[in-house]
Amino acid sequence: MKIGVFDSGLGGLSILREIIKVLPDYDYVYLGDNARVPYGGRSDKVIYQFTKNAVDFLFKKNCGLIVLACNTASSMSLQRIQQEYLAKNYPDRRVLGVIKPAVEKVGELQAKRVGVIGTYATVNSKAFIREIKKVYPKAQIFQKACPLLVPIIEEGEIDWIGLKLILEKYLAPLKKKKIDSLILGCTHYGLIANKIQSIIGKDVRIITEGIETAIKLKDYLARHPEIEFKLLKNKAREFYVTDLNLRFLKMARFFLGKKFRNFKDLTFISI
Amino acid sequence: MKIGVFDSGLGGLSILREIIKVLPDYDYVYLGDNARVPYGGRSDKVIYQFTKNAVDFLFKKNCGLIVLACNTASSMSLQRIQQEYLAKNYPDRRVLGVIKPAVEKVGELQAKRVGVIGTYATVNSKAFIREIKKVYPKAQIFQKACPLLVPIIEEGEIDWIGLKLILEKYLAPLKKKKIDSLILGCTHYGLIANKIQSIIGKDVRIITEGIETAIKLKDYLARHPEIEFKLLKNKAREFYVTDLNLRFLKMARFFLGKKFRNFKDLTFISI
């Protein structure tokens, strides 16, 4: 069996890249639902439906374990997928998210005033607040939705003055709250972590999900040999997208980084 | 039979508003595919599939004539919908777009150097170039994709300095070409027409699709009594969306304008 990684678009490739750095030997299947990206502004009903479609597809592709490398899907659908869908249909398979790994880091850092930035859906779901309260109930949490960051990053406008201006606007209320750490609650944000750091201030600890998810996945497999022993280790990688166009191919290279420039062509699947 | 208006999101409501101003007596059915918005960055294959779904839905809702109030759908799918889908399945019904009305205005103005702004998909389709060449072959056309305008407008960041900066960036190459008219090739752009005018200069004629589409639809019905006589005139309005959430309800009010504040609740349909 393989490890599946799902994202609403291609931002999850940055999570996959970090996972492969830590666990290079396994076989990976990536699915990006870029025909229906972004999920961020959609209702929980629709997000659950889309996520279930994706999980179903990856199970059919022989994935024994799936990482929902999408904060919106993780925050809005993971619990229901685990409790309703898996329990009934696939009791021996696992679906994990990207929220818990970042949240556990908050506990390790013993952070007291935690900022969280993400899409509307992630922020409105209050998933980070709920999860942080479980792990580290003393922490105070301050959220801020940053809806324009994803389109700006996807446009490659990373050095544009407008990005700096909107970051100053979005981060101002968090600065005022004197946060000591900041969770980048969206896969895209890792790509502008240094810009976020320079605006929020160097004393604030930035928590990026890719690295934390990779570390926690390694721990998980060590603790669950009944899952681990079923996983193939041929270093195979498959990439599926629900829409294939030049702009997305360019973005795929951008997210995968230089090391992954020569990955095989993305495969189109109809939704 | 009713008049259907389709858009990938809610931007088409601004077109519907203009149509209702000119033709208030007819029955209208609006469909916004906001579960899968935006179409702008997607491939022609996926856009055709989504548009066909929408047309199908509106025909089932008893629409005899549909306006594709979405530039992406109009430019990528209208011709195929008319030639393949309608001809085969619904030879007595009609589907019109928003591109031709704006293009005919270019001919009326005898514009010589025409700018066109829109999404990636609209610009890459070259639909405006193709259509303008038919109507007015002497015109020179200069296109520019403006991918960040829709997310900024949908965030309501209309008075934000970043909008001015990105407009200056997007419009600079068109200013350099000394255009005499500018087609706003996206339903959203009508909402910032005055900002566009102030940056492109007061001598450039701005062509907005809503007004042109409404005028041309009135002409069309006058020329096609065989369609017109089938249309109901009870002033009924129905609104369907593929995703229902608070943010979209807020946007609906924003697009419909003050007069339409008390429209009935949007109806959710599953896609």
Automatic annotation (TrEMBL), chains A, B:
Reaction catalysis annotation: L-glutamate = D-glutamate
Matching SUPFAM superfamilies: Aspartate/glutamate racemase (SSF53681)
InterPro entries: Asp/Glu/hydantoin_racemase (IPR015942), Asp/Glu_race (IPR001920), Asp/Glu_racemase_AS_1 (IPR018187), Asp/Glu_racemase_AS_2 (IPR033134), Glu_race (IPR004391)
TM stretches of this protein: none
UniProt enzyme class: isomerase
Keywords, ordered alphabetically: Cell shape, Cell wall biogenesis/degradation, Isomerase, Peptidoglycan synthesis
GO BP terms, alphabetized: cell wall organization; peptidoglycan biosynthetic process; regulation of cell shape
Known pathway: Cell wall biogenesis; peptidoglycan biosynthesis
Positions with a binding annotation for substrate: 7-8, 39-40, 71-72, 187-188
Gene Ontology MF term list: glutamate racemase activity
Superkingdom, natural source: Bacteria
Active site: 70 (proton donor/acceptor), 186 (proton donor/acceptor)
Known EC number: 5.1.1.3
Family: Belongs to the aspartate/glutamate racemases family.
Chain's role: Provides the (R)-glutamate required for cell wall biosynthesis.
Name of the molecule in the record: Glutamate racemase
The organism of origin for this protein: Candidatus Roizmanbacteria bacterium RIFCSPLOWO2_01_FULL_37_16
Lineage: Bacteria, Candidatus Roizmaniibacteriota
Gene designation per UniProt: murI
